[in-house]
Automatic annotation (TrEMBL):
GO biological process: DNA recombination; transposition
UniProt keyword list: Coiled coil, DNA recombination, DNA-binding, Transposition
Protein's name according to its UniProt entry: Transposase, IS605 OrfB family, central region
Organism this protein belongs to: Persephonella hydrogeniphila
Coiled coil: 252-306
KW DNA-binding (keyword) present: yes
Length: 493
């Protein structure tokens, strides 16, 4: 049976447990910084970077791998590395860290080669890993191999026991309870911190869902702000479905407002600190206040990210279940929303909103859930999709843009089509054009016009409360529409 790798992220509770893990991760981050600095110095002295894992690991051992005598500056960093290694007390995790750093360097050199061949495919010149101040590191992850954890079963359930330190006198562990019915093969585990939060990331293998369903339909998905997902299907029995994005837009606006307040307070305190420094006065109290505000700002960002990640998981699970239940074999996803931060020509306010919503995360979550069902997800660009008539020929050349568009957005959410002289939902038109950019959907004109003119819009609180079967009924066309809306209300209540 085919299997796929998935990640289960478990948030750690308990102040003492979080502090133990955070201290270890900060020590690892410092160790990585020292390795990066040492490698940079080595390149300055000898003209090349170290890409040998054994040599890097020998820097902290008593038996040097390379007979070359290090310079005095190198010896200082070697001593710092050894002291840091003694503080970490876990050889397995240090080996993994060195391996990952070498991998990052090799990836950098490959990127440089690709950049020289085709600079236009990059937003900027690739740069190697660099050391960062510990206070400026928003997050850090340490991967752990099978030698650093084990699974134990107790009366209350199944647990994963992760080794933090391998000190002979006193070994330190962290024990985390696994979810009920979690019977998958665990391949590795990682520990990470984001702001003041600590997580255990468990990488496991999950078998693909092998359902014997006839899948013949195609779907196009357009991503947006007020309408987060607009889904057009070639299934004649389904209306176009729009999933609201206003709730996510609202949480972003609240987050931006609160973050701006905290940043204003931080700036005011920093100005006071600068003034006191000029007069050589004590700034200890102000520094403490500043650190507390920075911590609050990081916790605010962590809360917002957790909320969005959880909400996206719920949305994409509903969408994937819906597409599987209604017999879809391939889904075309427009990736225009992910390009807003890469120079897309939108208004300043609109572009800022797009950047604040992590559409790439949404697409990735949807893609892997679709793949579990054997549905093929395909990302495509969105040229000629938002303003193009659904009845125009998309294969015409770019020189004939005026003939190609044959329509205009007359007001928010509405599209006036000059070919049929009809008014359609603008996002429904966009999702249909995304679909027909890559495929040739066979839909009769009457059904197409109904799908474009009368989509079903579902709010998030409604979406999360209804079952997949109810959502399929809700998306039914024409005669079932009144009955389905009653079903929606009954299921929500």
């Amino acid at each position: 049976m085919d299997k796929i790798k998935r990640i289960l992220s478990i948030r750690i509770s308990g102040k003492q447990r979080r502090e133990r893990i955070s201290n270890l991760l900060y020590s690892l981050a410092q160790f990585r910084n020292l390795l990066i600095i040492f490698n940079k110095r080595y390149q300055e002295n000898y003209g090349k970077r170290i890409l040998n894992e054994s040599y890097l690991y020998s820097l902290i051992s008593d038996k040097p791998y390379n007979p070359r005598k290090p310079k005095e500056d190198d010896e200082n960093y070697q001593e710092k590395l050894k002291k840091n290694e003694e503080k970490i007390k876990n050889n397995y995790i240090i080996q993994t860290l060195i391996r990952q750093l070498i991998k990052d360097y090799k990836s950098f050199f490959k990127s440089i080669q690709r950049y020289k061949q085709n600079p236009s495919s990059f937003n900027a010149v690739p740069r190697p890993s660099k050391a960062k101040k510990l206070k400026d590191i928003p997050s850090f992850t340490a991967e752990r191999n099978v030698n650093t954890f084990k699974i134990i079963e107790e009366k209350k359930g199944k647990y994963i026991l992760i080794t933090l330190t391998n000190d002979k006198k006193e070994k330190q562990y962290i024990k985390v309870k696994l979810p009920k019915n979690f019977n998958y093969d665990i391949k590795s585990a990682g520990i990470k911190f984001i702001a003041s939060n600590v997580y255990i990331d468990i990488v496991y293998e999950k078998p693909l869902i092998n359902e014997k369903k006839e899948k013949t339909h195609l779907a196009g998905i357009d991503l947006g702000l007020d309408n987060l997902i607009t889904l057009f299907s070639t299934n004649k029995g389904l209306k176009t479905v729009i999933i609201s994005g206003k709730e996510i837009k609202s949480i972003n606006q609240w987050y931006n407002k609160e973050k701006a307040k905290l940043q204003s307070q931080i700036d005011n305190i920093q100005n006071q600190i600068n003034e006191l420094k000029k007069e050589n006065l004590d700034i200890t109290t102000l520094e403490q206040e500043k650190r507390m505000l920075i911590k609050k700002q990081k916790e605010l960002s962590a809360y917002r990210n957790r909320w969005i990640t959880d909400t996206f998981h719920k949305i994409t699970r509903k969408v994937a279940d819906f597409l599987n239940e209604t017999g879809h074999k391939e889904v075309y996803i427009g990736k225009g929303a992910t390009e807003s931060k890469n120079g897309i020509n939108l208004s300043t306010k609109t572009n800022q909103n797009f950047v604040n919503i992590p559409f790439r995360k949404l697409i990735n979550q949807l893609k892997y859930k679709l793949e579990e069902y054997g549905i093929k997800p395909t990302e495509i660009t969105e040229e000629f999709t938002s303003k193009t008539s659904p009845f125009a020929d998309l294969n015409k050349l770019k020189e004939k843009l005026k003939q190609l568009y044959k329509g205009i957005r007359i007001k928010r959410g509405l599209y006036k089509d000059y070919v049929t002289n009809k008014v359609f939902n603008a996002d429904a038109v966009g999702s249909y054009n995304i679909l027909r950019k890559e495929a040739k959907p066979l839909i009769d004109e009457k059904t197409l016009m109904d799908k474009l003119a009368r989509p079903i819009k579902v709010k998030l609180n409604q979406l999360f409360k209804v079952t997949c079967e109810s959502l399929v009924e809700i998306a039914g066309r024409r005669t079932n529409r009144v009955h389905d809306r009653r079903t929606l209300v009954n299921n929500v209540l």
